[in-house]
Amino acid sequence: MNATQLIEILNANKFMRSDEEAMNFDFALAELALHSNREYLPALYLVLDDRCEQHEVMYGLIHFLESFEIQDQLQAFIDAIDRMIVNAKEWTLILLYGILNQDLSRNLYSEMLHSTHFQNRDLCNTLLQEIAANESPPLSSRAESIISGATAININMDEIQRDILSFLKHIQQGNIVVLLQDDRPIAEIKPIK
Question: What are the tens digits of pLDDT across the range 166-186?
Answer without folding.
Answer: 888 878 877 778 888 887 888
